[in-house]
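Internal ticket - ligand job 55, zinc ion:
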Amino acid sequence: MRCDTCGKRELVEIRMTVAGEELMFRRCGKCESQGWEGAGGSLTLSHVLDRARAH
Ligand SMILES: [Zn+2]
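stdout (structure tokens):
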């Protein structure tokens, strides 16, 4: 995987389960851009937090 922002291949990927759904958290070690991805594609942080809060 490449970083969408800087194009470097220095992404840290962490899998975690939020509200029963497996999500991937990615953070770039170069430019520190962050993102979440679920089964349906990329998610915003507020979306992830809403989901976690709802359960
Ligand atoms: Zn980057």
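Auto-summary: The chain has one domain: 11-54. Residues 11-54 form one domain.
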